[in-house]
UniProtKB/TrEMBL annotation:
InterPro entries: YicC-like_C, YicC-like_N, YicC/YloC-like
Organism whose genome encodes this protein: Wansuia hejianensis
Pfam families recorded: YicC-like_C (PF08340), YicC-like_N (PF03755)
Annotated ranges, domain Endoribonuclease YicC-like N-terminal: 2-156
Entry's family note: Belongs to the YicC/YloC family.
Record protein name field: YicC family protein
Domain Endoribonuclease YicC-like C-terminal, residue spans: 173-293
Coiled coil regions in record: 156-205
């Protein structure tokens, strides 16, 4: 089963104290690069989070955004300094009277004093916070995994179609290859006859030797066999359960090498045209597998 490296997942979970919202985004990358943005006071959980992510995502650039909220302020202590607030109100009233102001004293005037209301977070319940984090993370990972698998199926179908096209072009080359030698022999024979006198006999042995040398030099049988073998292996890898992106990337390089060799050996317009088509399809596949995990 192939997976795309591109995906998105979101998970939310809350218990009696904490509410987690987690977003995970992944894109193409050569390695497994995980970046996490999270509240500072739970940074100690970073490695635990990365370990959980690596069980789902083996390759790609992964960005994780973690938001932690406290449910109903149950994890927050609020301390109001009534005496300070009262003293501040009296001071404002005296100032109002002294300056002859008509403005009313409002609550907002008092709340602006930092020391009147203090808010402090209670010590976190590490076991409970880990439980809610894991559950929201699991939801996000399941969602992104589903998206990656779905897109992977689309990629696989497209790659298989392109492999079929490559095989069709390769069959044209394979059928054309034997005719090149026969045509070369015919052209060479005709050329020699044109250069010789009518009374001069054609040396068939020398002609056959020259044709045999040409046939050996231009033979692409081995390249065709290897390309067919690579295509079979390509399809087999697409059905594997583990990560296959790097394997496919290696096979693409091997296929490209064999196709280039055919292009350099075969001095034939038809084969050259098919080599161009092969390279075009191969490049399309190469672009697709850049997004495979």
């Amino acid at each position: 089963m192939i997976k795309s490296m591109t995906g998105y997942g979101k998970g939310e979970y809350e218990n009696e104290l904490y509410r987690f919202k987690i977003e995970i985004k992944s894109v193409n990358h050569r390695y497994n690069d995980i970046s996490i943005r999270m509240p500072r006071h739970i940074l100690y959980l970073e490695e635990t989070i990365k370990k959980a992510i690596k069980e789902y995502i083996l390759r790609g650039k992964v960005d994780v955004f973690i938001n932690l909220e406290y449910v109903n302020n149950t994890a927050v202590d609020i301390d109001v300094d009534i005496n300070l607030a009262r003293a501040y109100k009296i001071a404002l009233e005296d100032l109002k009277k002294e300056l002859g102001l008509e403005d009313n004293i409002r609550l907002n005037n008092i709340l602006g004093v930092p020391e009147i209301i203090k808010m402090e977070k209670k010590d976190i319940d590490e076991e409970l916070i880990l439980d809610s984090l894991n559950k929201s993370l699991h939801i996000a990972l399941e969602e992104i995994n589903h998206m990656k698998v779905s897109e992977g199926k689309v990629l696989k179908k497209d790659i298989l179609t392109k492999l079929d096209t490559i095989e069709e072009n390769l069959n044209i080359i394979e059928n054309r290859a034997p005719k090149i030698v026969l045509e070369y022999k015919s052209r060479l024979s005709q050329r020699i006859k044109e250069l010789l006198d009518n009374n001069t006999l054609l040396d068939e042995d020398r002609l056959n030797n020259e044709v045999a040398f040409f046939a050996d030099k231009s033979s692409i049988d081995e390249e065709i066999v290897r390309i067919k073998s690579h295509i079979i292996q390509f399809r087999s890898i697409l059905d594997e359960e583990n990560t296959v992106g790097r394997k496919l990337d290696f096979l693409i390089q091997e296929l490209n090498r064999e196709i280039n060799t055919i292009g350099s050996k075969a001095n034939d317009e038809t084969i050259t045209k098919q080599v161009i088509e092969l390279k075009a399809e191969l490049e399309k596949i190469r672009e697709q597998i850049q997004n495979i995990e």
